[in-house]
Write a structure and sequence with these properties.
Trna Endonuclease, Chain: A, domain 1, EC 2.1.1.72, 575 residues, N4/N6-MTase_EcoPI_Mod-like, DNA_methylase_N6_adenine_CS, Rossmann fold, DNA_methylase_N4/N6, site-specific DNA-methyltransferase (adenine-specific), 12 helices
């Protein structure tokens, strides 16, 4: 019998937006850099992007696919508190679609050894787990961590939650490996004083071991669970007393006789201070131990929401704008485990900017995306304080932060096409020639790289394949001249407003008309992909929107699909 596949299904699952791959427009007046280099590890090419986060992720796809080491997102938790007049199932379905659309692009952006970390509460955590497994693959799920976000439960309920989930996925799992590629690359947590205290210098008959402190490991197994092995029941000789020593009754040695003799010859068995122990212990030296510690699945030592709020108040001198900002200590642990200095960290729900601030202090490169006006009123001022070394809260003392580096500010370009007063699609009037060339290059999968030597080289896909973008109407003579200049060894995609003549005459040219070439490619003029209340359909049916089902024939067939394009923008949340 074939193995059934469980899947999550919801109203509108099959509706997918046709995203426009927009260009990013830099604004030097909003960018900020330290006045001088503080350390050799300073980075100045970090990016703060203002705009819809789904479109911004799409805008990053061409350049950053397979380059991001760590993604942290803190999306809206979809608690429903603002949607009392709407059917919760419809709201829930839209939330799932919008999260799914983002996760799919995020997965493409991640490196093969990259990982995604998502904070979420009980309202959607378990649906998000199944959804994430569909996008990344169940075998790429790493952990469901519990982060303690408050020091006590709320008093208005019988059982009060004090934690959030942190769901973690890897980009890939190589072959039949027990660990994902991300886990293989994870960093251990720093060793604690308590862990190091287990290693001591012990007196021995011939003096302390010169190899340094060690901790004692039992050399016997007690036989429970079938661990007793008759061949491991043998005698060894105490080198100090000359007596034969056997395992205690009901136990056996953990190692073969050859291994025990090797340990004995290397002085790795501890026979007690006077050398008279009836059972030796194995020495595990401190220098042999892992240089770090495995992270637990419960994090009660990574700061609380209230600590983050106090940090925000200290930075801005006002009551925190964000109700539940994430503390820098939480991001510090995630970024430490999931990346190394110089790696690229991405947060597409920037919120108060914690991810970028922490990544910056830790010597990582970063990209943040945010649409809300707090991008200008809170994130930029916060980052300026970080760069100037004025932010000494959060993890600054722990990482000895003194300032430095910088970031570049970008905003999403408007849609390439717009309708004129007669309803016809035309090139957006806000686009100049340079913007148009860059946008068409991205749309066609070319790298925008204008040539100083050839006017017709606006971008390239290979060393011999180029693109030319113009709003002119090309005559047969102009096309012939282009073909002659390109030559037989190169090819050129020509994007123009119109042309005359038979373009099949030129084997090295491919000619397309703007905007006709692009009309069916994307949802032009669509700027809103967030969860806006006014765009939600009113409740029309009590039927559940989400089921977990197998096989497909048993899946609930929704009578009315929700157009994903109707959902609008999905920004907000964030730490």
């Amino acid at each position: 019998m074939a193995k059934q596949k469980l899947e999550l299904t919801w109203i509108g699952k099959d509706a997918r937006p046709k995203l426009e791959p927009r260009i990013l427009l830099g604004d030097p007046s909003m960018s900020y850099h330290a006045k001088h280099r503080v350390t050799s590890a300073d980075f100045f090419d970090n990016q703060l992007i203002f705009g819809d986060n789904l479109l911004a992720l799409k805008a990053l796809e061409q350049e950053y696919t397979g380059k991001v080491k760590c993604v942290f997102i803190d999306p809206p938790y979809n608690t429903g508190s603002a949607f009392a007049q709407y059917d919760d199932g419809v709201e829930h379905s839209i939330w799932l679609s919008l999260i799914r659309d983002r996760l799919e692009i995020i997965r493409r952006l991640l490196r093969e050894d990259g990982s995604l970390w998502i904070t979420i509460d009980d309202n959607e955590a378990h649906y998000l787990k199944v959804l994430g497994d569909e996008v990344f693959g169940r075998n790429c799920f790493i952990a469901d961590l519990s982060w303690q976000k408050r020091d006590g439960p709320p008093n208005d309920r019988k059982i009060g939650s004090i934690h959030d989930h942190v769901l973690v996925w890897a980009k890939s799992r190589p072959g039949s490996s027990k660990k994902t590629a991300a886990e293989e690359a994870f960093n251990l947590m720093p060793r604690t004083e308590k862990a190091d205290a287990q290693y001591q210098v012990f007196s021995e008959p011939n003096g302390p071991d010169t190899r340094g402190p060690f901790r004692k490991i039992d050399t016997t197994a007690n036989g429970k669970g079938g661990r007793y092995v008759e061949s491991l029941f043998y005698a060894i000789r105490n080198p100090y007393t000359g007596q034969e020593v056997w395992p205690r009754e009901g136990t056996c040695w953990r190692h073969s006789k050859d291994e025990m003799e090797r340990l004995q010859a290397d002085g790795r068995l501890f026979w007690g201070v006077k050398g008279t122990a009836t059972t030796p212990m194995r020495k595990l030296f401190k220098f042999e131990a892992k240089q770090g510690m495995t992270a637990p699945s419960i994090w009660a030592d990574c700061g609380l929401n209230q600590h983050a709020s106090a940090h925000m108040e200290g930075l801005f001198g006002e009551k925190a704008f964000f109700e539940t900002p994430k503390p820098e200590e939480l991001l510090h642990r995630i970024i430490h485990i999931a990346s190394n200095p110089g790696d690229l960290v991405l947060d597409s729900f920037a919120g108060s900017g914690t991810t970028g601030a922490v990544a910056h202090k830790m010597g990582r490169r970063w990209i943040m995306i945010e649409l809300g006006e707090h991008c200008h009123t809170h994130i930029i001022p916060r980052l300026k304080k970080v760069i100037d070394g004025e932010d000494q809260g959060g993890i600054s003392e722990a990482v000895n932060w003194k300032g430095g580096g910088g970031f570049r500010y970008y905003r999403l370009a408007p849609s390439l096409l717009q309708r004129d007063r007669w309803g016809q699609w035309i090139i957006n009037k806000e686009y100049n020639a340079e913007m148009l060339a860059a946008a068409i290059c991205k749309l066609e999968g070319f790298t925008y790289a204008p040539s100083d030597a050839y006017y017709w080289q606006h971008g390239k896909s290979t060393e011999n394949d180029f693109i030319y973008v113009t709003t002119q109407s090309l005559t047969p003579e102009a096309l012939q001249a282009l073909s002659d200049e390109v030559g037989e060894e190169r090819s050129l995609l020509v994007c123009c407003s119109a042309f005359r003549g038979d373009v099949d005459r030129y084997p090295n040219l491919t000619v397309k008309k703007i905007p006709k070439m692009a009309l069916s490619r994307c949802e032009w003029g669509h700027d809103d992909y967030s969860l806006n209340v006014e765009n939600l359909p009113m409740a029309s049916s009590p039927e559940p929107a989400v089921t977990t089902a197998a096989p497909a024939s048993n899946v609930h067939k929704a009578a009315k699909a929700v157009d994903a394009g109707q959902a609008g923008l999905f920004d907000g949340g964030g730490e």
